[in-house]
Amino acid sequence: MISRRNFAGAAAGAFAASSYAQISGANDRVRLGFIGVGNRGGNLLNMTKEFADQQVVAVCDLLDPLLDKAVASAGTNPERFKDFRRLLDRKDIDAVVIATPDHWHALMMIAAAQAGKDVYVEKPLSLTVVEGRRMVQVAEETKRVVQVGIHRRSSPFCQEATEIVRSGGIGQVTMARCGVALNTWPSGIGHPPDGPAPTGLDWDLYLGPAPEAPYNENRHLFLYRWFFDYAGGQLTDNGVHFLDLIHMGLGQNRPSSVAALGGKYALHDNSTVPDTFQALWEYPSGLMVNFFQTSCNSAPFSNTKPLLAEFRGTKGTMNIYFDSWEIVPEQVTDDSFPARGPLETDAARAYRSSMKPAMEARSGAGSADPRLHIRNFLDCIKSRQKPNCDIETAHRSTTTANIATISYKTRKRLDWDADREMFSNDLSANELLHYPYRAPWKLG
Known about the structure:
The chain is an alpha/beta fold. It has 2 domains: 4-154 and 370-390, NAD(P)-binding Rossmann-like Domain (Rossmann fold); 156-368 and 397-433, 2-Layer Sandwich (Dihydrodipicolinate Reductase, domain 2), CATH 3.30.360.10. The chain has 13 helices and 18 strands. It has helices at 4-15, 39-48, 64-74, 84-88, 105-114, 129-142, 156-166, 203-207, 234-237, 239-250, 345-353, 370-383, 391-410; strands at residues 30-35, 54-60, 79-81, 95-98, 118-121, 146-148, 173-181, 257-263, 276-283, 287-294, 307-313, 316-321, 324-329, 331-332, 356-357, 362-365, 414-417, 422-423. The chain has a 10-stranded mixed beta sheet with strand order 16-13-12-11-7-10-9-8-17-18, with helices on one face. It has a 6-stranded parallel beta sheet with strand order 3-2-1-4-5-6, with helices on both faces. Helix 1 crosses helix 12 (370-383), helix 6 packs antiparallel against helix 13 and helix 10 (239-250) packs across helix 13.
């Protein structure tokens, strides 16, 4: 983990590195290809083009309007592709940015690394645990730089806040929580009928390894997130960001058990993910992490402003927001907790009066601008150093989410062997660690 103090120095030092893989000189630009240039991919392209030491030379998407927009935005006349494999055939591309539906992340990242490209792949890293482990293996085998788009790893204020927690600044943490609250009741994402794919869209290629399914507008573009065939709902969309932030603060990323419940309780749409969901993980050091999600009520779960992560320590609570953090001190005493019966009122009163703040209130602020993360990726391409959100780190946080989905699907509390990456108390649950790819696709 790079600290706030040496963040700028490390970034600057990357420019001084002499070993540039595939880049002939320190003044050369990193030649980039973008795979997926819709909502997130288009935003990443717009942010990346601000850096002078890169050039977007190729863009890939299945939709012509998105390609038109990306070419115009890049301003560098990039070559257009509809098949990502043809983009990867270009020998002059140094790195690719992958911002496709989640079910494509593994195959595209593996193919890119095996083609000699460094990779920026959006979160969540993978759709399954097996995919994620194979992605880690390929990154190591090919010695590629792989940055995963969990961008708060590059945010100085998030680094500062989680370092305070990790170093014991709020005492012993026994519980952390995060969640997503929104209200799309009663219609949710709607229930449009199946129908023909839009002209020019290769629906078979869009599905790729996913199960055969008729075209439905909700299974495409942004709303694919609400179908288990392609993603994992809020748990893997936003939850991976927040769970990773919690892992940063805890200094550990391997839960030992998980239990999850939920269902479609109120929304009447064609999504397959729950509209209400709770997951609880236990970690070996002795603490619990909770993620909750509701699509039926938008009241925030903090009393102030939208909260990314909350750490409850014995001395204080660390709240991390989108652009700031704060510590709320605990009131503590060395006295033993008294009986609270009618004959012990004096003891109870004395106990309360002996309480004092365990620490001072503190706060900080900053930015979680994804440009910091992109900059770190470009620097690491040149320095060959490990990026801020390396693939093993992202795999662990994504796995934490994915095993909760399996607990939800099986309706069971599951014990997780993080070394073997298997469930130890229910062998049948291990069948959900991956799924049969649709022919002809295979995990490389």
